[in-house]
Amino acid sequence: MRLHLAPLATAMALALPAVALPATARADATAQATDLDEVVVTATRTATTVAHTLAPVEVIDRDSIERSQARSLPDLLAGRAGISLANQGGAGKLTTLFLRGAESDHIVVLVDGIRIGSPTSGLVSLQNLPLALIERVEIVRGPRSSLYGSEAIGGVIQIFTRREAAGWAPRMHVGGGSHGAHDFGVGFDGREGRAWFGADYAFQRTEGFNACDVAEPTPFSGGCFISEPEPDLDGYIQDALSLRAGIDLDDAWQISAQALRSEGENDFDGDYGNRSETVQQVVGGNVRWRPSDAMQFKLTAGRNVDASDQFNDGSYTGYFDTDRDSAALQGDFGIADGQLLTAGIDWLRDRVEGSTVYVSDERDNRAAFAQYQGRFATTAAGTHALQAAVRRDDNEQFGGHTTGSVSWGLEFGGGWQLGAGWGSAFKAPTFNELYYPFFGNPDLRPEESQTVEIGIGWGNDDFDIRLDAFDTKVDDLIAFDAALNLPNNIERARMRGAELGVDATVAGWQLAASASWLDTGNRTFDTDLELPRRARHGARIELDRAFGRLGLGLTAVAEGPRYDDVANTRRLPGFATLDLRAEYALTDALTVQGRVANVFDRDYETVAFYNQPGREWFVTLRYAPTP
């Protein structure tokens, strides 16, 4: 497969002057921070240290990504607090993510501040975002519609592409392993005076394995949607390119632009399609003006393209091509010492084109939001913090919707922190739910939620621990209504649970561990049915230590049983996997890494009938001289 550079190069060229059009808040504020590992921007749309963020957040930086030797973004996220993944048969296959029990389309996903996702299905193709192009990932758990609008019921995940702050930084990696897998990547970042620039290319290929495990399927069994077994290899090929550039015109003005394009070829099992060619593209531009230390304005814009051509046994069967254009203007105002007021406007347009004809194929959303953040002088009880936000969305299809949130925190003696919060959120119906021929219902209302949460944490230089509990109720869930033979707002659901996270350094070992407990329920008919594909319990442990030039580590992931269907008739057993890894620095610039995943060759499923890889190995050689 050959990467088509023309669309990406054209988009990048347009993005640089188009910063006057710009998308949701970008991470350029982090460039002003001295310690990127301790700063997040997703939780508040402003740069805030992790210690001062009232929301439960998790940051996965580049060092952690490389040390983990994860092979994909879903692999990196698996088992983390509050997260359940459902994968349909290995690399490149459809992977959906549930956060705190919320639906896959109840989570906002951003790439460099640009909102991504398919307006038709409401899903994000996480499997098509290569780790080689990612610098860091921020996970914010809990409702954030008061800042981001629709879909932010379960939380927000933001992905930042590769970026170096200074110097000349070339890099390269090559690797191979099980299932005929091989990777290659090359990139660089550099700075010349006030300008910076960078590029990364990544290639990944695997022959795969048989994705579907159905011995005697029928057309209506739901088993991979096939009527006859297809015991073949279901491979995946991915080409991806990332470009970025920026300039500090002076101390007050900064301009930047970035673009990412990933193309994939994916084989799978199905009667009506068994191969797809996909495109995931994100282009954005940003201009920032900081007239004083107490005032900053950001103007950002971007476009996400999510497209796919479908084939069945080599014959072309159809396509879809969705565009998501977004723009935002945001101002941050320091109104007093330790107090920040943020206000802004957002614009979003979704457009659908494809072989399926929709009654309506485009809609706009306009919104205004405001947020207050304050930290107050230490009292006898400690240091208090307050965050409050409100947002009004006006959608072309469903009209107006107002959401809000408020959080309070207290830092008291000995490194202890206490926090509590409330937030409302909503999710607008997708194009498929509204307009799909003979299936859509244009009278659908947005799904609405209310969440309360409380958390407590303690930390020092070598140890951090945090426990968070939450209770979310969702009304007007969209589900199939047999009386109408259409989707309708008929369901209610409840998700409640707790998450424990620990980061520690003990006797030279680095420990990162999390555990989750989740209770979900479909409350439509006062039943005790659990929501499908969410594990009730989950845990992840990462343990690493360096012995001079040698590094050793392990990752253990365990998840409890789950149901695969709404009626809770098909139960998937729980599972546990162990990955072992090692790396050795041959020189200061050259490192060899090796990983054995699923050491005990556990057989398990996260979606019924779809296989997961057994024991796998992979070896990587990395070259990255110090700038």
UniProtKB/TrEMBL annotation:
Transmembrane segments: none annotated. Residues 1-20 form the signal peptide. One of its GO terms (molecular function) is ABC-type vitamin B12 transporter activity. It is a multi-pass membrane protein. Keywords: Cell outer membrane, Ion transport, Membrane, Porin, Signal, TonB box, Transmembrane, Transmembrane beta strand, Transport. Its main location: membrane. InterPro entries: B12_transptr_BtuB, Beta-barrel_TonB, Beta-barrel_TonB_sf, Plug_dom, Plug_dom_sf, TonB-dep_rcpt-like. Pfam families: Plug (PF07715), TonB_dep_Rec_b-barrel (PF00593). The keyword Ion transport applies. It is found in: Cell outer membrane. Residues 52-156 form the TonB-dependent receptor plug domain. GO terms for biological process: monoatomic ion transport. Residues 255-599 form the TonB-dependent receptor-like beta-barrel domain. Belongs to the TonB-dependent receptor family. This is TonB-dependent receptor.
